[in-house]
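hiii so um. not sure if this is the right channel but i have a protein structure encoded as tokens and i wanna go backwards to a sequence. like what aa goes where. can anyone help
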């Protein structure tokens, strides 16, 4: 029979709660920059891109347990996923800004 060690585990998942609150705050901040800040288009896109990168990092570390894994394979998977994400985001920005 397995014994549960409750000394090392909290009943409340604080890491996930903090990550969720930070993700929501970053989303609202990006919406505020987009709608109400009155910034130039290029500055607004850059700020939203930085906020999205920070939010992705928060989600990787707090929800997807990126620090746990198979070492070198984990890094390769992360690099290919980051490349695909950059191609999609930058390609979407390029297509949307060059449509006539």
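sure thing!! here u go:
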């Amino acid at each position: 029979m397995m014994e549960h060690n409750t000394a090392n585990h909290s009943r409340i998942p604080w890491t996930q709660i903090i990550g969720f609150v930070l993700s929501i705050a970053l989303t609202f901040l990006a919406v505020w920059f987009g709608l109400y800040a009155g910034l130039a288009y290029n500055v607004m896109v850059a700020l939203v891109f930085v906020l999205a990168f920070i939010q992705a990092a928060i989600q990787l570390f707090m929800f997807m347990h990126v620090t746990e894994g198979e070492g070198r394979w984990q890094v390769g998977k992360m690099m290919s996923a980051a490349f695909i994400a950059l191609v999609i985001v930058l390609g979407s920005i390029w297509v949307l800004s060059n449509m006539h």
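oh and The chain is about 70% helix and 0% strand.
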